[in-house]
Write a structure and sequence with these properties.
With about 200 residues, the chain is of the alpha+beta class. It has seven helices and eight strands; from the N terminus they run H-H-H-H-E-E-H-H-E-E-E-E-E-H-E. The protein has a single domain, classed as Alpha-Beta Complex (endopeptidase fold (from Nostoc punctiforme)), CATH 3.90.1720.10. Helix 1 packs across helix 4.
Length: about 200
């Protein structure tokens, strides 16, 4: 709870920042010439002054800054914060390792109190199609990464979605990144109380 409150306070503090638009892939690993310093990483305990002095250098900080002004769902932020960087494990269902569909299942259960089926294909089949321009927080986004419906995440805002990546674990990415835009199958919505359709 303390982490959630700290995260919420930092989110509110950074809403006034003006950000540079960047669509750098989130799977970028720094080269020998690029070093990410610990002081550049977003941490909930940063003071307002230190946040305002820094330009966002990490994807996590940039995403949180961009989302802070428009996403008001603190339980969702808390869930993401709690699971961020949990490693990927095919068939995994815990914080020791989780796959993409188990992550979305648990997010929906804990944040929206909605039960989802276990696999990405089953989640696709029980949801309704949403046009890309009409996507909203909580929509499922599906990708063809290995043939057919093989990857799922949860849409956040401004093209960003949270998912369990097979290469980097639980993280936030953007559907406009080249890797995902080529594989994007579309967004679908779960009919339920979170969006007033039930």
């Amino acid at each position: 709870m303390k982490n959630l409150l700290s995260l919420a306070m930092c989110i509110l503090l950074v809403t006034g920042l003006q950000l540079q638009a960047s669509a750098q892939p989130t799977d970028h690993t720094p080269t020998q010439n690029e070093q990410v310093q610990d002081s550049d990483v977003f941490t909930p305990s940063l003071s307002k002054a230190s946040i305002l002095q820094k330009k966002p250098r990490t994807t996590t900080q940039t995403v949180l800054n961009k989302m802070a002004a428009t996403v008001q769902n603190l339980p969702l932020f808390g869930f993401i914060d709690d699971w961020y960087y949990t490693r990927y494990r095919f068939g995994g269902t815990t914080k020791k390792g989780v796959d993409c569909s188990s992550f979305t299942l648990q997010l929906f259960r804990d944040v929206y109190q909605i039960s989802l089926p276990r696999t990405a294909r089953q989640q696709y089949e029980i949801s309704i199609k949403v046009n890309e321009e009409e996507m909203q927080e909580g929509d499922l986004v599906f990708f063809n990464t290995r043939g057919g419906i093989s990857h799922v995440g949860v849409y956040l805002v401004n093209g960003y979605f949270v998912h369990a990546s097979s290469s980097r674990g639980v993280m936030v990415s953007n559907i406009r990144e080249p890797y995902f835009s080529k594989r994007f199958l579309g967004a679908r919505r779960i009919v339920g109380p979170m969006n007033g359709l039930l």
